Task: inverse folding
């Protein structure tokens, strides 16, 4: 049951990501302006903002795994 729900979740994410692809109009205008250093700064900012949700989810899953393992012992 758990594996089936994870599979359904990932399938939903994969199929909806193709339809929901879009860009912020301001970000696109800045990058299309032609200033290379500004475009690199925008990309670095996006990467910086993207890392933290993944870290938080990873820590959450680690805590859940540790608690389940401790409860089973």
Result:
């Amino acid at each position: 049951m758990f594996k089936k729900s994870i599979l359904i979740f990932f399938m939903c994410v994969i199929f909806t990501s193709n339809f929901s692809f879009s860009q912020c109009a301001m970000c696109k205008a800045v990058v299309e302006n032609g200033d290379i250093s500004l475009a690199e700064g925008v990309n670095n900012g996006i990467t910086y903002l993207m890392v933290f949700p993944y870290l938080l989810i990873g820590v959450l899953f680690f805590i859940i795994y540790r608690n389940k393992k401790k409860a089973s012992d």
